[in-house]
Specification:
With 274 residues, the protein is of the alpha+beta class. The protein has a nine-stranded antiparallel beta sheet with strand order 1-13-10-15-6-5-4-3-2. It has a four-stranded antiparallel beta sheet with strand order 7-14-11-12, with no helix packed on it. The longest helix is centred in the N-terminal third of the chain and has 21 residues.
Amino acid sequence: MNDMEAYEFDRQGYIIIRNILDQNQILALSKSIDSLEEHALLNINNPPQKKSAWGAEYHVNQEKGYHVQRERGEGKTLIIEDFWNSDSSFDFLVNHETTMGYINQIVKSRPTINNSEIRIRYHGNSTSSHGGSRAANQKYRYSFGENGIDCMMVRMVYFVHDCSNQQGAFCVVPGTHKSNLSCPYGSNPDEEPGMVGLEVSAGDAILFTEHLRHGGFTNTSDQVRKTLHVGFGPHWMMSQNIATMDEPQHITDETFSRYDEVQRNMFRAWPLNN
């Protein structure tokens, strides 16, 4: 993260990182996401099922190690968590060098991965506005001290296709990561004053603090919007996926066996040597 990026992240609560993925990576991720979408849709209503601590019902896929909720359809979205277990094509993102160059500057105390989800948003779907006020739960905290920016939770959203406002762009109210009052405007991102759509190209990523007010515009296009999310926080933070909230990270033994030690430690509360 250079000085200008650090300034903009502190000022606005997000930055757009252009061309963080190369063409081969885009194609590989896109293919894996498409395949996983179809697998999830075939299995979503099958047992075993799990009710998360937040009340959502998930299918637990024991074959590929993911959790999935919701459905395909008009105005719907499909959310696939713990995608790491499903396909080795995702492995390079665990300790992606460029990504970690950003994360290590804004998350102190040895950052690890605490969130992993693929969001597939169909025509007519939007993501409600949330964040942007000082919550009692400080796990979304944004602060600045003698060592610079210090975030509790940040997220990198990778794009495998171009995404315009009409295609349901990720949207934010810049600067609201420093807000202290609750938002009075409801949760419709299409109507909220100050909400800005971040239009991106395939291979770009958006890095933002979870304290920022954000959401997703309604997808009014014929394109299915597909994004890959990886969240980071201090090493002691447990899973922040909805299906496994505040549980240990759901990484299978088979997945761990593929990883080197650096990658394994991205999912551990403390670094180990085995």
